[in-house]
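Weekly puzzle thread! Below is a chain. First person to post its structure in token form gets bragging rights.
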Amino acid sequence: MSSSLKYLLLVAPAALMIAILFLYPLGFSLVSAFTAPGQPFTLDHFRKVYALYASDVLFSLIIVLVSVALLALIAITLSAVIALSPCRPVVRLLGFLYRLPLFIPFIVVAQMMRTFSRQKWPDEQCAGGGRPGHTAGDALLAGMERDSDHLCLEATGLLPRC
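Winning reply:
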């Protein structure tokens, strides 16, 4: 057996999985996007998406453009103050403030949020009381809101079983 055939046999299972799990669904999606039952080629699906979501996309685009313009204005102003200001205390303060987020990892921020949001779950949710150490802040950090489904919260272990 030649060396290139051995390498081909080693790569074949991965290539087959990519073809089955990625290329086939991609091709199926592309074909179904441009065809409809009884029609060989159509753009009706794209017209419907445009009709439903054009105003939302335009609104999002306006929000992005306004946000970028405001942030660019603020960033250029602050950088000009830092670069051109003769007042050294202001330059040091602004330099400290814009460098500060670089040195605070997200873990520290999450722990601070957990510490400062020590609001316990209401006792009426579960007659048995809460598990020690599990607070509303823990659930909020897990991406849940207070009005989430009780079973969902219970499944995460953040809410005690009743």
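Puzzle host: Confirmed. Bonus trivia for everyone else. DSSP finds six helices and no strands in the chain.
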